[in-house]
Amino acid sequence: MKDAFGLPQSLLVLGGTSEIALATARRLIARRTRAVWLAGRPSPDLDRAAEHLRGLGAEVRTVAFDALDPAGHEDTLGKVFAEGDIDMVLLAFGTLGDQARDERDPQAAVRVAQTNYTGAVSAGLVCASALQAQGHGSLVVLSSVAGERARRANFIYGSSKAGLDAFAQGLGDALHGTGVHVMVVRPGFVRTRMTAGLPEAPLATTPEAVAAAVELGLRRRSETVWVPGALRVVMSALRHLPRGVFRRLPV
């Protein structure tokens, strides 16, 4: 069960090699979390992530999980929940894709959409149902400010995150009053392996900063968290710019 501040004792990470997810797990382990499941494709990176968290004092188990295999989500994730209550699920998988390549290759674009949106809808609903059945828990969904308004530079990725964000907000409304808390996290540009080599955007942040924001959001039982917080004002302004003006911005 969660402590008085809303922090979990048990954590399931969907996307077990995500740098943001692992920074969040480290922070939560330092506070209270003792049991962690890392769900992801079997790989040396997943094994190393598990060993690292074990070294911090947590009991860590891995489970084979593929966002692109929604038919297997109910069985795979159901086995995790059958082992005991999960206080928090962190939905952290996703792919940035390559905008220029994906525009030329519709199947590559579809893969981005299936990973970031379709896979998340499937896994999110399975986990939400399990959390509701146990009567408590938090589902934390890593969205992105890219979903706030489609940009020429990454509209394929941005559109998939827009769908994910809308889904998570609606799921939060559906679960209101059930004991299950849904929190949408909207980071801006985060310095990770996924963004290495890309031009850095203003207000760039780090996995550790996102992890700190997730912890604060859990304590406050927030429904939406912006990282950094200033992006809430920035994106509100950008969202309402006339389209002709928006097209000319260097964003």
Question: How are the SSEs ordered, and which strands pair?
Answer:
Layout: E1 10-14, H1 19-31, E2 35-40, H2 44-54, E3 59-64, H3 73-82, E4 88-91, H4 99-104, H5 106-134, E5 137-142, H6 155-175, E6 180-187, H7 207-220, E7 224-227, H8 231-239, H9 243-248
Parallel strand pairs: 1-2, 1-4, 2-3, 4-5, 5-6, 6-7
Mean pLDDT: 93
- Number of distinct helices: 9
- Strand tally is 7
Main pleated sheet: 7 strands, parallel
Residues in helices, as a percent range? 40-55%
Q: Give the N-to-C terminal Cα separation.
A: 43 Å
Alpha-beta content class: alpha/beta
* Biggest β-sheet: strands ordered side by side in the sheet: 3-2-1-4-5-6-7
Low-confidence stretches: none
Radius of gyration: 18 Å
- Give the percentage of residues in beta strands: 15-25%
So what's the overall shape? globular
String of helices and strands: EHEHEHEHHEHEHEHH
Short description:
The protein has helices at 19-31, 44-54, 73-82, 99-104, 106-134, 155-175, 207-220, 231-239, 243-248; strands at 10-14, 35-40, 59-64, 88-91, 137-142, 180-187, 224-227. The protein is α/β, with parallel strands linked by helices and 251 residues long.
Account of the protein in words:
Belongs to the short-chain dehydrogenases/reductases (SDR) family. It holds the Pfam family adh_short. The protein has 251 residues and is an alpha/beta fold. Helix content is 47%, strand content 16%. It is built from nine helices and seven strands; from the N terminus they run βαβαβαβααβαβαβαα. The chain has a seven-stranded parallel β-sheet with strand order 3-2-1-4-5-6-7, with helices on both faces. α2 links the parallel β2 and β3. α5 runs parallel beside α6 (155-175). The longest helix has 29 residues, at 106-134. The chain is globular. It starts with 9 loop residues before the first strand and ends with a helix. 41% of the residues are buried.
